[in-house]
Amino acid sequence: MNKDSILRMKSSKGSSPTAASTEVAGGWEVRPGGMLVQKRNSDSNHIVPNIKVRVKHGSVYHEVVISSQASFGELKKLVAGVTGVHTQDQKLIFKEKERDSILFLDSAGVRDGSKIVLVEDEVSRERRRLESRKNAKLDKASKEIADIRFEVDTLSKKVGAIELEINGGKKVVETVFLSLIELLMTQLIKLDAIDADGDVKLQRRMQVKRVQKYIETLDMLKVRNSSLEKLQQHQQIYKGSMSKKFQKQQEMKKINGNFNHGEVVVTTKWETF
Known about the structure:
This protein has helices at residues 3-7, 72-83, 105-108, 122-167, 174-192, 198-257; strands spanning 22-24, 28-30, 36-38, 50-57, 60-67, 90-94, 97-98, 115-120. It is of the alpha+beta class. The protein is rod-shaped.
């Protein structure tokens, strides 16, 4: 079937679109089901009759009531509701020919009581199944990354608190650094195990960079914390040395204070000749 035959529309009086359709540019219209089809001319006062078509799916027949001027695409949506076969997986065969979704029923000769055969497209179904699995995998990966992002946000606040303490001259216990670094490394391992593509892969890369930055910050703070510890030790040694020196000076003053250099004390009585 050529394109002209598929897009051919039934001529009638008037040029206004049906009330249930929305006209768009280029001689096309959007049908109630959301499908874009070629615009049809009809009398605004003309009532379009409904017809019953028999759709055979396997060994089962389904009766579907639809407008005689509907498209095969709209019929597919109704058929999906009664058979459970996705519209993308449907092949509608009428008079031994597969009919395109944009073709109108009456243009193809479908009448009340006509029989249409539904054949499932195995290739399309498998493609959709793979696509569905891929989307589910990406959704799972995105959720896992969101959970890791929340955990990293919590750990980042602890890193910031440690930095404030060290900037204020307060020494931090070494085990705090080791614990935080271990938790951040755990998040890196989780991120590395996530298989992602596209935007989700970009999200994972961003979180990896965040975690690496916080680990580098902790390494830097460890060095500063160690320097701060050595400085405090030197200060304590200096204070201890000065304290001992001061005590020694005080003792010397005390000893020297027992002697009065301004007076001569005679302790021996000499006989006067």
